[in-house]
Amino acid sequence: MSDIPAEAKKIQVWLRNRGFDNQVVVMAKSATSIKGAAKIIGCPEEQVVETIIFKDSIEKRPVGLISNINNGDMKKILEKSLKLKLETASQSYIDEVSGFTIGQLPPIGHRMKIEILVDEKITKLKYVWAWAGSAKAFFKIEPSDLVEMSQGKVVNLDG
Questions:
Q1: Which residues pair with 87 in a beta bridge?
Q2: I need a surface site. Which of 28, 70, 77, 80 has the fewest CB within 10 A?
Q3: In this structure, what DSSP letter does residue 10 have?
Q4: pLDDT tens digit string along 42-59?
Q5: For residue 47, what are the CA distances in angstroms to 72, 77, 85, 126, 145?
Q6: Cβ(32)–Cβ(103) under 8 Å?
């Protein structure tokens, strides 16, 4: 694992320590968008999931969303669909709760407990690719395993 970026190495260790055999793959190029990641991985955009962290405006706790939606205002979608009141999280808040940077957030391995919501649409796919803490590193996973390892709650974002 010597050529794996330090952040991605943390994710690989996290996976191994919890009995998952998913392999972190390091690409030659980096990507911080679903479109860019799909291009360098060589898969359809719908198979790339990103993790977005918000701050619950009432309870002041982190709320994460794992989704493959590549458009729209996710904050508004979550607020409307799930009746949440959210704030857009700053990079410093995201770093504090996750230990990672916007644009390469993994769905797992965070510093603090984050309530994770998983978009129901991705559970219908055979597998997805998620960032592994680096803009060049990803891991392939079955959606059911992603829900389990992130301790996520599957939610319908269509209202």
A1: 55
A2: 28
A3: H
A4: 999 999 999 999 999 999
A5: 18, 20, 28, 9, 15
A6: yes
